[in-house]
Amino acid sequence: MSAFGTLETPVGVIGVESDGAAITRVTWRSTAPEGSVIAADPGADPLLAEALAQLRAYFDGALQRFDVPVDLGVQTTATRAVLLALQETVAHGETVTYGGLAARSGTAVPARGIGSIMGANPVPLIVPCHRVVAGDGLGGYSGGDTGRGLETKRWLLEHEGALPTSLF
To answer: What is the rounded CA–CA span in Å between residue 36 and residue 156?
Structure first.
């Protein structure tokens, strides 16, 4: 059984799911997925408590790299390689293009396929898919509250200093 906890952030409520050994899901939702138990006391699952604390520190500007274990679930070899390349090579305050990440991953995944992989990332923020941008702009983003994906991506990149603060 998984434990689920939430955190109110400047970009909406973040939900985090832990199986006790790894963080298995980060979502923009405040309701537990089916099969998960809402942790009345996130401290009952030390890993969940640590992930929520690290996310809080990230949004407070005090954390630049997450170090909680994650479980990416069942993925193809190429998808896993892309997500791990992202997590390991694109630091806080940096961005990489879809094509650049394809090259870094050492896979044959084309830039367009990288976008699909980013959209299916089970642990956004921890594996920072918001740092992957198009060659001519932000690209897409499926995180954030419904209909606010690009606004969320822009906020995250501005928060990290990877984009100048928006004029709007």
So the answer is: 28
pLDDT tens-digit series, residues 37-80 = 666 666 789 999 999 999 999 999 999 999 999 999 999 999 99
| CA pseudo-torsion sign 109, 129, 12, 68 | positive
The Cα 164–Cα 40 span in angstroms is: 39
129 carries an active-site annotation: yes
Catalytic residue among 129, 133, 157, 162: 129
Rounded CA separation 106/136 (Å): 23
Q: Is the pLDDT of residue 166 over 80?
A: no
Separation of alpha carbons 149 and 168, rounded Å: 16
Tens-digit pLDDT profile for residues 75-104: 999 999 999 999 999 999 999 999 999 999
Helical ranges in the chain per DSSP H: 46-59, 77-89, 98-105, 111-119, 149-159
